[in-house]
Amino acid sequence: QLYREARECLTLLSQRLGSQKFFFGDSPASLDALVFSRLAPLLKAKLPNGKLQQHLKSLQNLCNYCTSILSLYFPWDRGESRPPPHLTLQPWEGSEAEEDPHKRRKQLLSVLVGLAAMLGYAFLSGIVSIQRGGVGPAGRQPVALEQEEEEE
Predict the structure, then answer these.
(1) For burial by CB atoms within 10 Å, which of 34, 43, 78, 130 has the most?
(2) What does the UniProt keyword field contain (predicted)?
(3) Residue 27 is assigned to a structural domain of this protein
C-alpha cells in the first residue's frame, strides 16, 4: 500500500509539473526545493528495492527536472570529486584563511578563557576546593571522604 501511494504521489507530481521547468513557472520556489530534496536521492541513490526508483525513472519530466536542478545549482556534481574552488572554504585554501591569519591562535585563546572561566566557577561555587596535604596539628591527618561517611 505504501509503494502504491508513493507511486501515485510521483505520478501526480509529474502531472502537475507537466512540461514546465519548475512547478510555478520559470523560477524555482520553495516547493521546488522540497520536491527536489525528496526526488534527487530517490533518483540517484542505490536502493535495495528499486520499484519506486524505476517508477520515477519512467516519469521523464521528473527526471529532467532533477537533472536540470543538479546541473544548474550543483554543477560540480558531473563526475568531479569536489565543488569548484570558489565554493569551498578549506582552511588551507580560499578566502577564509586569507581573511584571518591568526584564526588558530584565537581558537586556542578562546578555549583557554573558557577553561579558566569554568575552573573559576568551580572554585567559587565550592564544587572544587584545595586542601593542603600533610600532617595537621597534634599529628592528626586529614580524613578521607569515605572515612568521614563511615564515622557519621
Answers:
(1) 43
(2) Membrane, Transmembrane, Transmembrane helix
(3) yes
